[in-house]
Each structure stands twice: as structure tokens, then as C-alpha cells.
From TrEMBL:
One of its GO terms (biological process) is rRNA catabolic process. Belongs to the PemK/MazF family. The lineage of its organism: Bacteria, Bacillati, Actinomycetota, Actinomycetes, Streptosporangiales. SUPFAM superfamilies: Cell growth inhibitor/plasmid maintenance toxic component (SSF50118). This is mRNA interferase MazF. It comes from Nocardiopsis algeriensis. GO terms for molecular function: DNA binding; hydrolase activity; RNA endonuclease activity. Keywords: Hydrolase, Toxin-antitoxin system.
Length: 97
């Protein structure tokens, strides 16, 4: 997405692919974070106090491929409990049992 000044707008993502895959392929699979309020749904995971300083919602149905040169900075990690819920959201988004 372009801003009015023509610069890339920075958006936060959660990397959901494993490190071995990421290193081998030079890219990663990620889902977007948003601070826009979202209705409760299996593929929308709210972040809680354990995920600070990150806040908002993980959109598990917005899966994208990011190349290493698109990754600008590590802004933190989600709690184990939240990542477990993200895994459930990914399964729902992909129709997996």
C-alpha cells in the first residue's frame, strides 16, 4: 500500500511459518495484525496483556508471503497461549481439522 508521499506504509505481521522453512526458502508465511476493532470470530484472535507491547487482533485469514528484505524489524513475540489460539485460527481459515 502506498502512502500519499509514495513511501511504503509499514504494517505489523505475525510470522506463522517455522524457522527451518523460513531459512531454507528466504521468505516466511505471515498473518496481519490490526488495531481496528473486530467482531469475535474463530479467525480473529484478540491480543491480551501477555502480548504487550503488541495490541489489537491477529487476522488468521489474511495469510501472506513476505520476503526477507520486506521484514524491517522484530517488534516482539506473542504469548504461547495466543500462538495456540492463532494455530486454531489458521486451521479454521484453511478448513483443516
Amino acid at each position: 500500500m502506498e502512502t500519499e508521499e509514495g513511501e511504503q506504509e509499514r504494517k505489523p505481521y505475525v510470522v506463522v511459518s517455522n524457522n527451518q522453512r523460513n531459512r531454507a526458502l528466504g521468505d516466511c508465511l505471515a498473518v496481519r495484525l490490526t488495531t481496528t476493532r473486530k467482531e469475535a470470530y474463530t479467525t480473529v484472535v484478540p491480543l491480551g496483556p501477555a502480548d504487550a507491547p503488541l495490541r489489537g487482533y491477529v487476522l488468521c485469514d489474511e495469510i501472506t508471503l513476505l520476503f526477507n528484505d520486506e521484514l524491517l524489524e522484530d517488534i516482539g513475540a506473542l504469548s504461547h497461549a495466543t500462538m495456540t489460539t492463532v494455530a486454531t485460527g489458521l486451521k479454521a481459515a484453511l478448513g483443516l481439522p
